[in-house]
Amino acid sequence: MQHGPAVRRRKLGAELRALRTSAGLTSGEAARLVGWHQSKVSRIETGTSGVKPADVRLLLDAYTVADTQLRELLMMLAGSDDSGGRHHWWHAYRGVLPPTYRDFISLESQAGAMRTLETTVVPGLLQTPEYARAVTKAAVEGLSEDRLDTLVEVRLARQDVLRADPPLELSAVLDEAVLRREVGGPGVMARQLERLVEAARLPQVRLQVLPFAAGAHIGVTGPFVIFSFSNTSDLDVVVLDHLTSSLYLERKEDLQAYTEAFNALQIHALSPEDSLDFIAGTATGA
C-alpha cells in the first residue's frame, strides 16, 4: 500500500520500461537517443525519482509510441498540466485540496471505468449540491463557509467526467444504509434519492443496491474504488479512503482480490432494474 504519487511514479516507470522493451531498446540505447545518462532512465523506470512531462514526451517519441490515448494517460501520470488540450482544472485548488485528493481526482478524470462500493454515503459523482454540502460539513469540522463552498464546488466539478466524451463508466454498489441514512434533512435526502433514480437511467451508470436482507457480505470491511484504464490494465489501481488520507493498492494480487470482491457484491445485490425500483420506493417511503 502506498500513497498516490508513489504509485503513479511506479506505474509510469513500469509502463515506460515495457514500451522501451517493445521498441527493442536497452536502457543505455534509450538514454543515448534522448541524450541522457543511463542512470536517469533506470531511476525513471523504477519509480525512484520523479519525471517531467517533457521527459516522458521525449521517451515516447524515442519509442515511436503513436497511441494518442496512451500518450495522454502517461503524460497525466507525469503531472502534465495539459492533457490533450484539457487543462487540469483541479490545479486551481492546490491551496485547498490535499495532494491525495488531487491525485484521486486526476486518476478519476483519466480512467475509463470506475467501480465503487459505498457503505455510508452516496458516491461523490452522484451527489446533489445540498447533499454534498451536508456530507462535507459533517466530515470536516470547523470549516469556514468559504472553504465549505469551495469543497462543494470541487465535488460538483468532478461530476463532469460522467458527461465527458467518452464518459466515465460508473458501476456502483450501494449498501441500503446509504439510502436510509438521512443526510441534511428529509428534503435534502428526498432530492438526493431522486438524483440517484435519474443517474440509474444513464447508459454509463450502473447502480445496484445491496439490501439489508442480503445479510453479512464481503463489503463489510469498508468502501473501496477500483479505477480501470482502457489503454492498459497495468495502470489499474484500488483506492481505500481514510479520514486523513487515501491508500492506493497496485499489486496484481490486490487488484484481483478487490475485483473478485466487487463481482461477488454485484451478484448478491439487486439487479439494476430492481435497484431502480428499490431507490424509487425508498424515495416515496414505500
TrEMBL record:
Signal peptide: none annotated. This is Helix-turn-helix transcriptional regulator. Residues 16-70 form the HTH cro/C1-type domain.
